[in-house]
């Protein structure tokens, strides 16, 4: 992941001698799609422009049509293909994805059968093939990969974009994070444990998630049976319900509207494990809670940290005269305004992050 981020930023941004204005969200969207593809598909397609364009288009179209479908009565949704052109685009992207991914899968299977591949490749394709064989089922690799893209790329893009915006608004936090990053890598080098030891970075990410949740509601459920609560309230079978995440509840948090990067660093003194970025609690439902917590949160956490580390050490960041735009709202879902612009330029890294 580290080397892929290094290569991606070099190709996408390179050396920027003077301030350059860019749209923040599209930049991060493409970066996340590439890094995720490296893990999901392997090195063959992580930098394949055709695949990346398919993945990015599919995420955008799927997100748009999902919002539209939510406004339709369930009985009308099967007819939506006649009204919503995004559904047709999604089907086209699935067909294109199959033409790219199927030959890759077949080539791997053939080389594996011929003994040319003796070790497992470190990507999702290899894992999925093993699981499918173990369960005796057939898998549409293209559909599954696009499902992963929708689940991983969209939310991670929003999380990183909003986090970077919080940091640009709080320059002191950037300086503190750079100091922690340099100190950690100078003593420990590039290890998975190095990411875990950056407690300020972890706290700042959780604080940004508190201020910028992907949705205003959490734990959305359908009652499968009648449920009677402790106070006698009855939730009838079939009812839909959700809980408010309380991430800006003044009875839980001080200075609820202020970005305090060390907020959860201080809380760790009372309960170390409860306030990690990936840990859910009744007070912080950023990833849900309990057995239904987001299963990809550990991967997302590492991906976010690696990307942000590179972006902070390699570049200086500022807003344009436009300033920071308010987050958008669609139903209960929140997102960064795609028109958000930033200025960036290269800076001399205190340490080199790329592997030899």
Which strand order does the major sheet show? 1-9-6
| Rg calc | 22 Å
Quaternary state reads: single chain
What structural category characterises the helix and strand content? Answer: mainly alpha
Helical residue percent band: 40-55%
Number of helices: 12
At the first level of CATH, what is the class of the largest domain? Mainly Alpha
CATH fold descriptor of the largest domain: Cytochrome p450
For the biggest sheet, the summary is:
3 strands, antiparallel
Query: What shape does the CA trace take?
Result: globular
Strand residue percentage = 5-15%
Q: What is the number of independent domains? A: 2
Task: Indicate the low-confidence ranges by residue numbers.
Answer: none
Report the average pLDDT across residues.
Answer: 89
Termini separation (Å)?
14 Å
């Amino acid at each position: 992941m580290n080397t892929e981020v290094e290569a991606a930023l070099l190709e996408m941004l390179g050396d920027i001698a003077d301030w350059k204005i860019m749209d923040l969200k599209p930049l991060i969207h493409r970066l996340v799609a590439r890094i995720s593809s490296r893990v999901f598909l392997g090195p063959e397609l992580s930098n394949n422009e055709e695949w990346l364009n398919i993945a990015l288009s599919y995420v955008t179209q799927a997100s748009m049509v999902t919002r539209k479908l939510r406004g339709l009565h369930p009985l009308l949704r099967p007819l939506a293909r006649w009204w919503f052109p995004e559904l047709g685009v999604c089907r086209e992207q699935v067909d294109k994805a199959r033409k790219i991914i199927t030959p890759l899968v077949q080539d791997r299977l053939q080389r594996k059968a011929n003994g040319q591949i003796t070790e497992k490749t470190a990507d999702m394709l290899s894992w999925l093939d093993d699981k499918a064989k173990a369960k005796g089922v057939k898998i549409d690799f293209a559909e599954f990969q696009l499902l992963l893209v929708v689940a991983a790329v969209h939310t991670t893009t929003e999380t990183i974009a909003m986090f970077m915006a919080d940091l640009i608004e709080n320059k002191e936090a950037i300086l503190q994070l750079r100091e922690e990053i340099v100190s950690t890598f100078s003593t420990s080098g590039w290890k998975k444990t190095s990411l875990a030891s950056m407690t300020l970075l972890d706290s700042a990410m959780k604080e940004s998630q508190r201020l910028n949740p992907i949705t205003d509601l959490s734990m959305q459920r359908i009652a499968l049976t009648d449920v009677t609560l402790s106070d006698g309230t009855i939730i009838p079978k079939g009812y839909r319900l959700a809980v408010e995440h309380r991430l800006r509840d003044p009875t839980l948090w001080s200075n609820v509207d202020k970005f305090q990067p060390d907020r959860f660093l201080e809380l760790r003194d009372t309960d170390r494990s409860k306030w990690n970025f990936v840990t859910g609690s009744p007070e912080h439902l950023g990833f849900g809670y309990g057995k239904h917590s987001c299963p990809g949160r550990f991967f997302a956490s590492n991906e976010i940290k690696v990307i942000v580390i590179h972006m902070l050490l390699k570049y200086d960041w500022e807003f344009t005269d436009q300033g920071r735009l308010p987050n958008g709202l669609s139903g209960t879902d929140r997102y960064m305004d795609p028109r958000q612009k930033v200025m960036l330029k290269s800076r001399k890294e205190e340490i080199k992050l790329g592997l030899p």
